[in-house]
Amino acid sequence: MLLQQPDLTERQAELIQGLYETSNRLARLNRNLLLLAKIDNHQYGQMEEINLAAFLHELLPSLECLAGDIVLHKEFHGSPVLHANRTLLESLMNNLIVNAVRHNRPGGEITLAIVGKQFVISNTSDELPLDGTLIFNRFYRPSEKTKGNGLGLAIVKAVCAYHGWTVSYQHKHGEHCFIVDF
After folding, report:
1. Sign (positive/negative) of CA torsion 31, 159, 177, 108?
2. Do 148 and 141 form a contact (C-beta atoms < 8 A)?
3. How many domains does the chain fold into?
4. Quick check: helix, strand or coil at residue 106?
5. Could you give the CA distance from residue 148 to residue 126 in angstroms, rounded to a whole number?
6. 0.90 cut: is pTM over it?
């Protein structure tokens, strides 16, 4: 409402915009910490059988909007049926895909692949390889220039641990690659 005031100066608008962005960042941090706490306390008991390829096809329209000018490739070779919590699986996929977009280059590529009982997401990037021993730690960010609060991959790891899955990272052929093994 303050931003809509007619007598607002440019400096005041900048300050209010900064407060708005900080408030949104703190709200996301709070949501992510609550999600981790709920996972740690096993509060996601509702499990169901989920066909992974069908699940990803449901998510694709919103993911394609998020990707912008980044080309999204799909390589689905089969589709495991997972015994999983739908909300947690969606959080896992969203975090991996948001990272692939965020750490990509303009006009880059993202590949979503299902190979056997694995989901593999890889993205082009101009960034250096990540430290595989640290990237799944809470609040880890490879540099201060990195956007986000450093919880996305910690959430991915927690969701995998909750379901008995594993997640790993590789850097190959100039691409960042995350592998979820079901």
Report:
1. negative
2. yes
3. 1
4. coil
5. 18
6. no
Tokens of 12: 């005041």
Is 82 inside a domain boundary? yes
- Burial pattern 50-65, b for ≥16 Cβ within 10 A else e, equals bebbebbeeeeeebee
- Please give the torsion angle defined by the CA atoms of residues 116, 118, 124 and 126, in that order, rounded to the nearest 10 degrees: -140
Backbone angles phi, psi at 143, to 5 degrees: -155, 165
In a domain, residue 112? The reply is yes
Mode of pairing for the β-strands spanning 109-115 and 118-124: antiparallel
Q: How many CB atoms lie within 10 A of CB 147?
A: 10
75: domain range? 47-181
Query: Does residue 86 contact residue 50 with C-beta atoms inside 8 Å?
Result: yes
- Say if 18 falls within a structural domain: no
Tell me the per-residue pLDDT of 8-66, one tens digit each, with 9 for 90 and over: 888 888 888 888 888 888 888 888 888 889 998 888 889 999 999 999 999 988 888 88
| Tokens standing for residue 55 | 């699940």
Phi, psi of 5 (to 5 degrees): -70, 135
Domain of 137, CATH number, reads 3.30.565.10
Are 101 and 110 a contacting pair, CB within 8 Å? yes
